Amino acid sequence: MRQATTLLEVPTERQGLREITREVAGWAGGQGMREGLLTLFCRHTSASLLVQENAAPDARADLERYFARIAPEGGDYAHDDEGPDDMPAHLRAALTAVQLAIPLIDGRLALGTWQGIYLFEHRRRPHRRTIALHLLGD
Amino acid sequence: MRQATTLLEVPTERQGLREITREVAGWAGGQGMREGLLTLFCRHTSASLLVQENAAPDARADLERYFARIAPEGGDYAHDDEGPDDMPAHLRAALTAVQLAIPLIDGRLALGTWQGIYLFEHRRRPHRRTIALHLLGD
Amino acid sequence: MRQATTLLEVPTERQGLREITREVAGWAGGQGMREGLLTLFCRHTSASLLVQENAAPDARADLERYFARIAPEGGDYAHDDEGPDDMPAHLRAALTAVQLAIPLIDGRLALGTWQGIYLFEHRRRPHRRTIALHLLGD
C-alpha cells in the first residue's frame, strides 16, 4: 500500500457552492490506484466541504439560501472583525464539513450518480482556498 | 497492511433513523483485522449518516422531529422536482454526515458504549440505499 | 506503511469548546511519521468535534451561543432522562462532527494557520471524554 498527498488550490469568485469534483477525481485518478481511500481536508474556517446534488442548479441555490437563513448576517455576533459576513461564515462552516473521505473502488471514487463534491465559500469576497488531499491505496 | 471494500445495501421503509451498527460491525469484523480504520460513505444526497444514542428510542424520535423542524417541508424552495420532501431531504443531509470513519482497536470498532451507527433516510418513500465501506488495517 | 492508535482522555469543565490541538498534534508528532492520515473519533453522543478559528475568543463564544440558540434547552423534547441539557446535547452533536480526519504532510498536520481542533462539550456538568486517535502513514 502507498500514499500520495497534494494541496489543491481553489479560487472562489463569490459566496456559494463551487464544484470541484473534476479537479479532485482527476488528481486521484492520476495516482494509478485501484482501491483506496481519498481524504479532503479544507484548511479554512470560513469555507467548507459538501457532497451534494450535481444535476439541479435549483438545489444548489436552495442550499445557499438555506444556510444564509439559518446562520444569517446581521445576527447579534461579538466577532465581526472582518465584516458582517465573518461570523456567519464560521457558523456555516461548523454546520457543514471541514473534511470528507471517499473510498476508491475499481479505480473510481465511490460517489453516487448524483453526487458532486463542492467547496462551499462562505465569504463574500473572492478567496484562494487550499484543500489538502491525501490518497492511500494500491 | 491491507484493505477491503464492499457496497452495503440498506433498504429503508420510512423517513427517519435506521440502525446499521450490526451490519457494519459484522462486515468489518469478518475481515480478520485487529487494528485499522473503517470508512462509511453514503452514496446519496437525500439520505445521510449519523452516530447517535443507541439506547433511548425517545432520543431518536426527538432527533427526527428536530431535523423536520429546522429543515421543514413547505419551505419556499425552488427545487421540488420530486415532491415536497425533496429539498428538505438535501438540507437535512447537508446538516448531518455523508461519511464516517471509525478506528478499529483490538479487533473492535472504537464506538462508545451508547453509540450506534444510523442511516438517516430523509425521503418519505422506501428506498434502497447503498453505503460504500472501506476497511484498512492489519 | 504502519499505524498507531490511542485513546485520548479529555476532561471538560464546562459546556463549550475546549481546544485539544496541542494534545492531538503532540501524540501524532510522537509517532515519527512524515506522511499519513490522522483520524479522531469522539466516543460520545453528547460531545462532538469541531475544527474552528483558534485566534479569536469572540468567535468561540459566538459559536457556543449559536448552537445554544438553534438547539435550545427548553424545547419540547420527549427525551429528558438526564435533565434539560440532555436532548439539546444530542442535537448539537448531530449538527457538528463525531469524527475528523486530517492529513499529515511533511511531518505536520495539514491544519490551516487559523484552525484549531476542539472538543465541543454539550453537557453542563464536567465530564471525562475519550477520543479514539488513529494514525497511519510512513
TrEMBL record, chains A, B, C:
Listed InterPro entries: UPF0047_YjbQ-like (IPR001602), YjbQ-like_sf (IPR035917)
Pfam family, one: YjbQ
Family: Belongs to the UPF0047 family.
Protein name as it appears in the record: YjbQ family protein
Organism placement in taxonomy: Bacteria, Pseudomonadati, Pseudomonadota, Alphaproteobacteria, Sphingomonadales
